[in-house]
Structures are given as C-alpha cells and as structure tokens.
Amino acid sequence: MKRRNWFPWTCGVLLAGGLLVQMAVLPGLAYAPYYRALGIVLNAVTAGSFAGLMTWVIQRRNPEKKRQTERAERDERNRMIWGKAAYFTWQVTLFLLLAAYLVLDILECTPGMAAVLTVLFLNLVIYLAATRFYEKRY
Prior knowledge:
With 138 residues, the chain is mainly alpha-helical. Helices cover 86% and strands 0% of the residues. The chain has 5 helices and no strands. The longest helix has 32 residues, at 76-107. The termini are far apart.
C-alpha cells in the first residue's frame, strides 16, 4: 500500500479555506467584536499554508535542493549557529517586551499595539542579523 503525503493536501485545504473565508465571510463580520483578531488569524493561516505549499513544491521539483537542506539541518556548525542566534534573540526579546510593556502602560491606547508589532518585527530582524553574524564568526 502506497503511503500518502498529507502535508500538501492539508496546506491546500487550509489555503483554499482561508482565502474563501477572507473573501466571503470576513467582510460581513466587520462590526463583530473579534473582527481584527479573526483577520490576523486568517492571514496567518493563509500565509503559513501558502509558504508550506511553496516549500513542498520547491523541494519536490529539485531533489538535490532537498538533500542540501536535509544535510544543512543535520550539520553541527549550522545547529550551533542557530542555537546561538536563537538564544541571543530570546535575551533581546525579553528587554524589548519590557520596553513594550512600559510603552503600553504610558500610552494606554492604540499606539501601544503598534509598539508590540514593532517588537515582533525587531525580533525577526535581530534573529536574522545574529544568524549572519555567527555565520561570519564561525
């Protein structure tokens, strides 16, 4: 019996369902109390499933790329780099979250939400910068 790969089917169903709900259902809920949160969750599900589907397609089309990715994931140097970058990012995130808390406490309004989104963006940028730094260092 042939083993089925459920990953592309799951990503495809989540992508189609997320797009359908965003186009057909979400506009009618504009005045619902959790409209913004629902929109964020739907965007995350749609973007994540699209990224997963594209990753699967790229690996499927180029088996050499898949082997290189698997080799890089098992490489000790890359694991050390990812671990150091993740730890550094975690430390910086703690201080950024403290700063975001202070900003939210002072502002007590909507700009605080922008501060938290900035923290999340800075977290991503610092992680990528730390990874680049450790790649050059080691």
